[in-house]
Structure formats: structure tokens, C-alpha cells
Amino acid sequence: MTAMREIYASGNGDTWHLLWDFETGHTFVRHTANEPSGGNVVDISLPVFLSLGRDGPEHQALWAMIGTLVDGHFSAEALSSPPSPEAGAAAAEPLPGKGIL
Q: Where is this region: Disordered (predicted)?
């Protein structure tokens, strides 16, 4: 059995869907070309699809979908800086010979 969710539908009729095959555990993207282009269906492994870039609207839509799976919202600043220690957590001890100046 396979679960399917639409990622993106272009204005020209092409569609991209995210599929998960319950039996094999494989997740992949299915691109269906519009009828004037022949309606060809191509399955692309998820790692290959993600490695193709972020510029296409279908890629941006999948990254946005993945982002909805993360609890909370992260800013670019938060993602680029190391996490702050939890309240009440002890600070890391400096290594011998590596004191704080």
C-alpha cells in the first residue's frame, strides 16, 4: 500500500507528489508531466530529488512541507548560532591549559 500527498502543481499541469510505500519503507517523489507533454510519470528517490536543488517551486514546496514537521519556528539567526545552555545548566569546564582569558 502507498500513501501519497501532493507537493506542488504547476500552472502548466505538471504535478509532484510525495509517496511512501508502506511495504518497502521507501519514500519518493512522483513527477507527472502534463498531457500535452505526454503525461509521463517519473519516480525519483527522495535523496536524489532533494539533491537537485532548491530553486524550483516543487523543491521549495517540499522543503516547506518538511519544515512543517518541525515543532516551533526557527529564524535564520537561531539556525546559524549554537544553542544556548538550558536554564540552570552548569557551564562547561575549560580544558587544562585552555583557560578563559
A: 77-101
